[in-house]
Each structure stands twice: as structure tokens, then as C-alpha cells.
Amino acid sequence: MGSLILHEDSRSGNCYKIRLTAAHLGIKLERKNYDILKGETRTAEFLRDISGNGRIPVLQDGDRYLPESNAICFYLANGSKLIPDGHYDQADMLHWMFWEQYNHEPNIATLRLWKCMIGIDALSDAQRIQMTGKRENGLAALDLMDKHLAKRKWFVADQFSLADICLFAYTHVADEADFDLEAYPEIIHWMERIVTMPEHVGLDD
Amino acid sequence: MGSLILHEDSRSGNCYKIRLTAAHLGIKLERKNYDILKGETRTAEFLRDISGNGRIPVLQDGDRYLPESNAICFYLANGSKLIPDGHYDQADMLHWMFWEQYNHEPNIATLRLWKCMIGIDALSDAQRIQMTGKRENGLAALDLMDKHLAKRKWFVADQFSLADICLFAYTHVADEADFDLEAYPEIIHWMERIVTMPEHVGLDD
């Protein structure tokens, strides 16, 4: 890896995952900020030079541009202590990371975006009608996490891994989308274990 | 790996990915079918014994149960020719696999499910109002794929990989959701390359 530039919106949990992964690995990232609400990732320049998908985060490594938050975390952590040994445990870690992007982020992160950044009054009808379903799915995601953590300290392989980092990013701010985290004691204890690690950095750090 | 059982709905592209990966690797899978439309993955037994997330596919390897289609493909292919060497190329492959689950599958696969399996007349208001957005996002996904393939034969690292398999699964049936694949000549050529490989199996094989 050469010098690394993280193209990000600093409020995004998907971007925070990468900063948290880098902090645990002692990797230095230059940061370049874009305001997603102002369409700064949909400009012709961004689409041409940074990512044709028009989304952050994107990690720039020299002249290469890597999108997708969880893939970026994998890139930074490949071969490190943040990815368990063994094919099954590696796949199990990826299972939680894919689950996060399919079952957790589109519900909890989207409700947070709509409430705290866009504002409920500014939502379209198509967005507003999805709020109930997203809340139910978000509650189901937190419930599944709480049950899983009742029997173990970390998500995979009895060790802190990218699965924990990627799930922590939007879980620890779920209260901003009106999810009551106090209802999930195992998640609370797991988050305490994460934030007290010496390498930890917060979303606003 | 021991003897492997794929818990699936054989109509699902997410399950097909795994059979296609296994075919390319010469891995034998036992198959157990569930009808997702009849709620067979939401029974108390399924949630307790197979997956608390209530979805297929799940790969059973002895007494271990691995969910999430793309994580299962990674498990089967870890260390094989279907995953490129090098940390950047591995992350780039995962980038397309995460992109598939976030930008492609929730649009193209969901519209196929709604049209061909559930039926448009049976959709809820919340589903029906999302159809326009999902069509726009599905078109954008196909457009991005076509542009990417204009400069290369395979998605990543100049070699056939899991990125191609995972993107092929729902792309090749996008016409069932009324996407006109003839509008994407690069995708057509890429699909021809895939289906003429000697190891290839179809969704209905």
C-alpha cells in the first residue's frame, strides 16, 4: 500500500468503519470530505475520477480507487489480527459483514440518515411509507445481534475482528434513529468492550 | 470441509451462485429445498436449527451453518483459482460482491421476485411505490456493469472470479424483471463467455 486517501463524508458510519479499522492497525489515512446531501459525490468529476457508483467511502491507494466500505476494511486488514485464521472463520466474518450491508445498514443507517440528516419532513412518499418496515427490520437486526452475543464476546471466532468493527459503526449510533439500545444488554456490553480498547477512536474523533 | 448440504430455494439467484461456484470447483453439494413463498424458512425449526435470520441460502458443513450467499461462495473458493492473488485484487473482488448485494440484488432480484413469484397484484402499497426507484437503480447497476466491461473481459484482475459468478446470478435473469439486456452489449458478451465455460451449470440444471 502507498499513501492512502479516504474519500468520505465524516458523518457516515460506513466511512467511520474504515477509520476504526485503520486505527486498530496503526495505518495513517489522509481524509477528503464530501457532503453527500449537497450531491458532492454525484458530480461529473467525482463519477469520472473517484467512483462511477457516486458513493462514498472510496479508498484511494496511489492511482487505484476502491469503493465499498467493507471491502476497504478487508483490504486494510488482510493478513492482520483483525481477520481470523481458517477458511470457515474467514467466511463467517464475511457472513456478518454481508449481513450488515443487507439487513442492518439499509434499515438502521437509512433511518438515521432520514431523521438526522435529511429530516422527516423532507422525505418523499416512497421513503415515508418504508419507515415502518425499516424500523421492524432494524429491530430484528438488533435482536439477532443481541441473541448472538449472549453466548460469546465477539461475533466470530472468539476474537475481535472486522465483523465487530463493521457492525459497531451503525449500531452505536442507532439511538440517533430512535432505536432503544438499552433494550439489548448484550449489545451494550459488547460496545463497552469495543470503546475501551486502547486503539479505539470515535466517529467524531 | 465435510459433506456439504445447501439449504436453498432452487429459484433463487443467491442460491444458484453457490451451485455455480461449486461446479467450477468440482465440489459436490447435497441440496435441500425450501419454498420461501410458503414461509418455510421462517418456521420455528428453521430459525432454531438452520439460521436465526430466516433466509436461504445456508450452507451446512457438518454441524456448522453458514448464511449469506457471497460469504458461502468465498468459503468454497478460498485458496482456489476463483479468488485472485494479491490483497488489492481480493478486495476489488469483494467490492463487486458487496456492490452486488447493495446496488444490484435489492433492485433487480427484488423486482424479479415481485413480478415472477409473488405477482404484482399481490404487492403491498409499500412495495408498489418502490417499483419505480428499484427500476431506476437496477438500470443504473446494469449501466455501471456495461461500462466496466467495455474495458475488460472479467470484472477483476483479468481473470474469471467470484465477482463474475455473483454478478452473473441475477444479471442473466434480469429480463424476467423486464430489464432489456440487449441494451447492454458488453454484458451480453460477458454472459456468453460465462455460459460457454465447460464447468458452467444453469440455474435450472
Q: What does this molecule look like?
A:
The structure is a homodimer of 205-residue chains. Chain A is α+β, with helices and mostly antiparallel strands and 205 residues long. Chain A has 2 domains: 74 residues, Glutaredoxin; 109 residues, Glutathione S-transferase Yfyf (Class Pi), Chain A, domain 2 (Up-down Bundle). In chain A, 51% of the residues lie in helices and 8% in strands. The first copy, chain A, contains 8 helices and 4 strands, in the order βαβαββαααααα. Chain A has a 4-stranded mixed sheet, with helices on one face. In chain A, a hairpin with a 2-residue loop joins strand 3 and strand 4. In chain A, helix 1 runs antiparallel to helix 7, helix 4 packs antiparallel against helix 6 and helix 4 runs parallel beside helix 7. The longest helix of chain A is centred in the middle third of the chain and has 32 residues. Chain A is globular, with a radius of gyration of 17 Å. The model of chain A has no long low-confidence stretch (mean pLDDT 97). At the A-B interface, strand 4, helix 3, helix 4 and helix 6 of A face strand 4, helix 3, helix 4 and helix 6 of B.
SS element count, helices of chain A: 8
Largest interface: A-B, 38 and 38 residues
Order of helices and strands of chain A: EHEHEEHHHHHH
CATH class of the largest domain in chain A: Mainly Alpha
Biggest sheet, spatial arrangement of strands of chain A = 2-1-3-4
| Uncertain stretches of 5 or more adjacent residues of chain A | none
Shape of chain A: globular
Q: Beta-strand level of the residues of chain A, as a percent range?
A: 5-15%
Write down how many β-strands of chain A occur, each being a DSSP E stretch of 2 or more residues. 4
At CATH level 3, the topology of the largest domain in chain A is: Glutathione S-transferase Yfyf (Class Pi), Chain A, domain 2
Mean of all residue-level pLDDT scores of chain A: 97
Q: Largest beta sheet of chain A, briefly? A: 4 strands, mixed
